[in-house]
């Protein structure tokens, strides 16, 4: 009987006197967007990339990597690279559990694209695995680290809108029929997991976990969801004894207006189109409306990288801005919604 391999020793804090060295697992569109934002930061660099096609990996590091960056033809080789501090997992979410586990087993810190996994059970399993090994893990929900969203949170927390009563958010686009991850069940195709997660996260950030969920949606003939909406009731009765409600929608079939708002007794905040990576918002009180601009680096991916670096340099294995417990709560909520919509099985 073979001996059980020893668990990797958690990495020491990343020194502050050198760049954070990133490995990129999967080299599709989202990986390129992330790498372009990394290039705007002085203390980050892509030192390796892994793809099932070694030429794609080499082309990726030629465009985005450091001078001596390596391109690998397998994810296993990437995870084993001793120069990589943290792996950005950019594969379709149907592969996230397998790919993130591979990296954790190799002793690597992991920033994994959303949705973290296909369901709450596998999400909890991945979180427990990272905690058992003492390794950093976070879901790459870049909206949570966006400076605009954080300022909205601050204002709401400071009572700028009075007692909250309503959150509204919706996100939609027409999905390219050639993008396999959006249409192939074995890759985890789901409008909720791909884009509905943003309205849900926005409501969760401001109102917390709901106690009541009423959802409906449309299914593709192959059984996955392509559009949906939900009304959520949250805890938090104020002086009026009425709980706040969020109204959310998502679709990969139509160009919706992609806006969000949060309203209270003293005013409201409106966030314009593509609310999940905004650069400004409008604060409305009575007849007065003030548009507030907040500096954002690049498209906004850089801010999650900055947060990961701060954690790794401080030796922290979890992020306050990308909290794992909240990630699992959102997965539990998405499980409930998918069941109500009629999605019974997933890849």
TrEMBL record:
Record GO terms (molecular function): nucleotide binding; oxidoreductase activity
Positions of the Gfo/Idh/MocA-like oxidoreductase N-terminal domain: 21-137
Transmembrane portions of the chain: none
Signal sequence interval, chain numbering: none
Pfam family, any one: GFO_IDH_MocA_C3
Keyword Nucleotide-binding: no
Record-linked SUPFAM superfamilies: Glyceraldehyde-3-phosphate dehydrogenase-like, C-terminal domain, NAD(P)-binding Rossmann-fold domains
Record carries keyword Zinc: no
Keyword terms, alphabetized: Oxidoreductase
Domain GFO/IDH/MocA-like oxidoreductase stretches: 149-270
Annotated family: Belongs to the Gfo/Idh/MocA family.
PANTHER family: OXIDOREDUCTASES, TRANS-1,2-DIHYDROBENZENE-1,2-DIOL DEHYDROGENASE
Record's protein name: Uncharacterized protein
Organism in which the protein naturally occurs: Aeromicrobium erythreum
